[in-house]
Amino acid sequence: METTVADAALAFAAERYAAADLVAVGGSAARERRPRSDIDLLVVGPAAMFPGDAEEAAYTERWRGELFEVFASTDGGFRRHQLAGAERLRPVSGFLLVEGEVVVDRTDGSLLAWTRGLLAAGPRVERAELDARRYAVTNTLDDLLDAADAVEEAVLAGLLFQRLAELVLLANGQWLASGRWLLRRLERLDAPFAAALGSALAARDRAALERLTLQSLAPLGGRLLEGYSR
After folding, report:
1. Topology of domain 5-121, per CATH?
2. For residues 76 and 55, is the Cβ–Cβ distance under 8 A?
3. Which domain of life is it from (predicted)?
4. Is 89 left (phi over 0), alpha (psi -120 to 50) or beta?
5. Dihedrals φ, ψ of 17, to 5°?
6. Domain spans of the chain, in order of start
């Protein structure tokens, strides 16, 4: 096993993608090593890196004791993926490049600048999108308050956390994320709110979850059920 995440990334890229123009490493392993952490590896380079007519590859591989999650593409492929990700409100690889550690860079800097500009612009969210999410949050809150057993309560509390966090992020011009990255994105936006919501979820505190949900819905028009039209 290599000494550091950057060392492992460099060794892997040198063996598999020697012609790469840019290699960045990110993910949880780059922030805080845990026993099951993988290494997210972004590789951008010429089409000659790929077999046949392919221009990209995405796969998971165990290599020299490290688990790599590899996203490799040409410059054009990377840009297309980021635009598509932006449409889905989650340009994942863009954050890997901008927030990760660049370990190989033979570019002129234009790709990094383009990506930073895309992320800085934030998501384009129509009012209809926010209303649909407001409806889903309201509905999930009511289901949680009516939950009849511990398992149902746990499932609905987790779903409410996810839906509410996503709504708050989008309403504040922030990109979405999933899993632990959703929590981190929310912490970056509003650390006290993220802590309060996380504590309420962990404690299965329905009253606190209701209070925080209604507090978040208020600036957007409050609860939304009756009269909502898709």
Report:
1. Beta Polymerase; domain 2 (3.30.460)
2. yes
3. Bacteria
4. left
5. -135, 60
6. 5-121, 127-220
User: How many Cα atoms are found within 13 Å in the side-chain-facing hemisphere of 2?
Assistant: 17
With a pLDDT cut of 70, the percent of the chain lying above it is 95
- Give the per-residue SS3 of the chain: CCCCHHHHHHHHHHHHCCCCCEEEEECHHHHCCCCCCCEEEEEECCHHHCCCCCCEEEEEEEECCEEEEEEEECHHHHHHHHHHHHHCCCCHHHHHHHHCEEEEECCCCHHHHHHHHHHHHCCCCCHHHHHHHHHHHHHHHHHHHCCCCHHHHHHHHHHHHHHHHHHHHHHCCCCCCCCHHHHHHHHHHCHHHHHHHHHHHHHCCHHHHHHHHHHHHHHHCCCCCCCCCC
Q: Is the CA virtual torsion 148, 151, 154, 155 positive or negative? A: negative
Question: With a cut of 50, which residues of the chain have pLDDT below it?
Answer: 1, 29
Does the predicted model carry a pTM greater than 0.85? yes
C-alpha to C-alpha distance for 118 and 229, rounded to whole angstroms: 32
Degrees, nearest 5: CA angle 57-60-66: 130
Taking the C-alpha atoms of residue 5 and residue 69, their distance in angstroms, rounded to an integer, is 13
User: pLDDT value at position 69?
Assistant: 95
What's the CA gap between 187 and 104, in Å, rounded? 30
